[in-house]
Write a structure and sequence with these properties.
With 287 residues, the protein is an alpha+beta fold. Helix content is 22%, strand content 33%. It starts with a strand and ends with a strand. One of its GO terms (cellular component) is fatty acid synthase complex.
């Protein structure tokens, strides 16, 4: 029987995050729990949405960016990670991929019911990967879904590693040059609540094995979607693969190859100096 954890309000993310990190050492892997974290009747603060839009580059509108709904669901994810039944440690986990499905635009004025579950634990060449599924309903209607894949390094699980899907070259071209400031991680943390230390200061990032501060993957996905916002369909699927850390301060190049009507738009975020692909993704309209 599914265990339901219902949150009556927004959790203290700092406290929950600290609990998840503090208990990481005792989490050695195993079967995923049949647990669902829910929060009902969520209302969006217009000022908070406006701050988020400014940091990510979205136009100020009364529709929620698909990535902002991930923002609303993220505290539920961390609450799941902090639950003693969850077998994998938050500390050292890596966000590999993120797919967002917007079934229809969600309005600022609507009350949103959110839920989060974990499933599909499977081998990865560097550990175990797990899918975290988030959903948003309005008056019983499924309006948005998120699928976040996390890697837990050094863990093991039975089974064969799934084959990697074949894909062509990432889009390339002149693109738009973005100069990312050293405080971008702190600014996005302020509007997203994601206070992972690797995003906040060079010293804490170095302690986790990075040469300097790295920006949030969800900022990258949001900024890339904002870069093609005028071309987004009312319903779409946006998939991103976070290939390499986006170091800040730094300079990147955003490239978008717009597909034919009804086809996917290919996206890439590249290191301007090395030309390596940092984030790769696409946006596909839903008819």
């Amino acid at each position: 029987m599914t265990k339901v954890i219902e949150l009556s309000g927004p959790p203290s993310l700092g406290r929950v995050y600290a609990k998840a990190v503090a208990t990481s050492r005792g989490r050695r892997g195993g079967d995923l729990p049949d647990v669902r974290v829910v929060r009902k009747g969520v209302r969006v603060d217009p000022a908070a949405l406006a701050d988020y839009d400014r940091v990510c580059g979205f136009a100020l509108r009364d529709e929620l960016p698909a990535t902002y709904l991930h923002n609303l669901a993220f505290p539920l994810q961390v609450s799941l990670f902090a639950d003693k039944r969850y077998p994998y440690p938050l500390n050292g986990s890596v966000h590999l991929d993120n797919t967002l499905t917007q079934h229809r635009p969600v309005l600022l004025t609507e009350a949103i019911d959110l839920s989060v579950t974990a499933g599909n634990a499977r081998p990865h060449r560097r550990g175990v990967q797990v899918d975290i599924t988030s959903q948003a309903h309005v008056a019983g209607e499924l309006v948005w879904e998120g699928l976040a894949t996390y890697l837990y390094r050094g863990r093991r699980i039975e089974g064969a590693e799934p084959p990697r899907a074949a894909e062509g070259d990432a889009p390339d071209g002149p693109g738009a040059v973005w100069r990312l400031s050293g405080d971008l991680g702190r600014r996005f943390s302020a509007v997203s609540g994601d206070i992972n230390p690797i995003h906040l200061h060079p010293l804490t990032a170095k302690a986790m094995g990075f040469p300097r501060t790295i920006v949030h993957g969800m900022w990258s996905q949001a900024a890339m979607l904002a870069g093609v916002e005028s071309r987004l369909s009312p319903a779409y699927v946006a998939s991103m693969s976070f290939r390499k850390p986006v170091l800040i301060p730094g300079t990147v190049r955003f490239v978008a190859q717009v597909g034919a009507p009804g086809e996917a738009t290919q996206l890439a975020l590249r290191d301007r100096r090395k030309d390596t692909v940092l984030v790769r993704g696409d946006v596909r309209p839903i008819s």
